[in-house]
Design goal:
Layout lengths: L1 H14 L2 H10 L7 H13 L1 E5 L6 H15 L2 H11 L11 E3 L5 E3 L4 H7 L1 H11 L4 E10 L23 E7 L10 E4 L12 E2 L4 E2 L13 E4 L5 E6 L4 E2 L8 E9 L9 E3 L8 H8 L1
Parallel strand pairs: 3-13
Antiparallel strand pairs: 1-10, 2-4, 4-12, 5-10, 5-12, 6-9, 6-11, 7-8
Helix pairs in contact: 3-7
The protein binds 2-oxoglutaric acid (AKG).
2-oxoglutaric acid (AKG) binds next to loops.
């Protein structure tokens, strides 16, 4: 019964209330995308995934700031202690013990947080909003260190094929701070696997996907894209499509990640800002408060 009510509420928000309003607000805005941003949006709309050098969209000064932050995290005592714990078997009982996150599930950050600022950056939101065709909502942001594992170990959690379920479309960003090779846990993505596309054999019910039992065993290998790339790669994908990642066996992986949904998502925002934000443009203000 609760599932059914959520599904109804989601569809009302998506089809009649929140998303149509957001689409109207977006259409009334001035939209100015550079060539690299337009190419990213085209690739996302066509296949569900896009990758470009970070500095083809953002400036080098921003790259210097965030890569310093990310390298500091990778070298921090938090990461070192967690890697030690994983290797001695202490984190293996948790489903995603191989993943060290900077933030808890519900993060409290200040307005100066670099990962919040990146996710609200106008160049990034311009891509997200053009992809959705409406003003989007920022759901979360984080910094991850994926621990190098042994090749023989079974895949766990999101190392297995899955769809994210917070919305029918979810745009996730990933910035690599290490070279991500075939063996260091690249995100793998099944193109054309969003709702209604040829590799989708299920439908979205508001807070979950109605699984067709064999969906993940029907993946055509030619439609799987491996998101490998050097340090400095920006990868974007619609994580409601089929994907997996983080099975790192050749070396660890450090990345920043963040995600946007449409305003109809029933998933609560996973962070709060503890002080007042400086003046924001309309897209950032909507992403933070809708
Ligand atoms: O690359 C990974 O670690 C998996 C990421 C993933 O499944 C997700 O962000 O939804």
């Amino acid at each position: 019964m609760r599932e059914w009510l959520s599904s109804l509420k989601y569809r009302i928000y998506r089809d009649y209330l929140r998303n149509p309003r957001s689409r109207r607000l977006y259409e009334a805005q001035h939209r100015d995308l550079g060539e690299a941003q337009q190419q990213v949006v085209r690739d996302l709309l066509e296949t569900g995934i896009a990758a470009v050098p970070f500095t083809s969209i953002f400036d080098d000064a921003l790259w210097q700031t965030i890569s310093r932050e990310a390298d500091g995290f990778a070298e921090s005592a938090t990461v070192k202690d967690a890697v030690r714990a994983w290797k001695s078997g202490d984190r293996t009982s948790t489903q995603k013990g191989y993943l060290i996150r900077k933030y808890p599930r519900h993060a409290v950050v200040t307005s100066a947080d670099p990962w919040l600022q990146l996710a609200l950056d106008r160049r990034m939101l311009a891509i997200a909003n053009a992809y959705f065709g409406m003003l989007s909502r920022l759901m979360f942001f984080d910094l991850w260190y994926t621990i190098e594992d042994q090749a023989g170990r079974d895949r766990r959690g999101s190392q297995n094929w899955h769809r994210d379920a917070e919305d029918q479309n979810i745009l996730k960003g990933f910035v690599y701070f290490t070279d991500v090779t075939e063996g260091s846990g690249p995100l793998e993505y099944v193109t054309h696997s969003r709702a209604g596309e040829r590799n989708c054999h299920t439908s979205y019910a508001g807070i979950s996907w109605t699984r067709s039992a064999d969906e993940f065993s029907r993946i055509p290998p030619q439609d799987v894209v491996r998101g490998m790339g050097p340090r400095g790669t920006l990868l974007l994908c619609d994580a409601a499509g089929i994907h997996r990642g983080g099975f790192a066996i050749d070396g660890p992986r450090t990345l920043a990640t963040w995600g946007y949904t449409t305003p109809s998502s029933l998933e609560p925002r996973r962070f709060e800002v503890s002080d007042s934000m400086p003046a924001l443009d309309a897209a950032a203000s909507f992403a933070l408060t809708c």
